[in-house]
Amino acid sequence: MQGKHMKIRIDENETPKKILEAALKLISENGYAKVSMRDIARKAGVAISQIAYYYRNKEGLFLALVRNVKKAFVDDFTEKTGKINGSDEFITFLCEYAKESIVGNPDIHRLRFEFSTLAMASELFRAEFGTLVKELSEIIAKDIEERAPSLEITKTCGALRIAEFIVIFIFGVSSQYLTEGRDPRRLENIDMLKTLIK
């Protein structure tokens, strides 16, 4: 399963990586609106002009951060699902993976929560958030089709609708967990997927 924190992977030099890691930490702790470019530059140990060079502005930096986090998740998830066989094993894996991800990577889940909130007021963020949900849903739908084709619910709903439900359900549980003081009982709600998806 998850085991350790996902890392943002960037092939370029260390400056963009330091900027994204500083932005992730600050935004997840304080919220997008309360973090300035100056704060991020200070935390990353770079000049504001370097942030502008790589990301143009705060919005560009935030979108780059979300895209890099998404890529790290997709790479990690794809690697781990490659070892799954059978419908029951897949749904069990999905539940455990989600719980471990929420506990092991709270910064990433707070970032997603912040992103979804911003998407309600910004067309740019709304479009990007829609793309995020769509891509995550398509990845899970592909896994459902390949690893869990015998699920009864796929006959009536289809793999993509099931995947969309799973993504939104996990988003909801992670938001509840983070906003209600990280009560571990909240994560048990994810196990409802084992009953709902048969």
UniProtKB/TrEMBL annotation:
Keywords: DNA-binding. Residues 13-73 form the HTH tetR-type domain. PROSITE patterns: HTH_TETR_2. Residues 36-55 bind DNA. InterPro entries: Homeodomain-like_sf, HTH-type_Tx_Regulator, HTH_TetR, Tet_transcr_reg_TetR-rel_C_sf. The keyword Transmembrane does not apply. Pfam families: TetR_N. Transmembrane segments: none annotated. It comes from the Bacteria. Gene3D superfamilies: Homeodomain-like, Tetracycline Repressor, domain 2. GO terms for molecular function: DNA binding. The keyword Transcription regulation does not apply. Coiled coil: none annotated. PANTHER family: ACREF/ENVCD OPERON REPRESSOR-RELATED, ACREF_ENVCD OPERON REPRESSOR-RELATED. This is HTH tetR-type domain-containing protein. It comes from Synergistes jonesii. The lineage of its organism: Bacteria, Thermotogati, Synergistota, Synergistia, Synergistales.
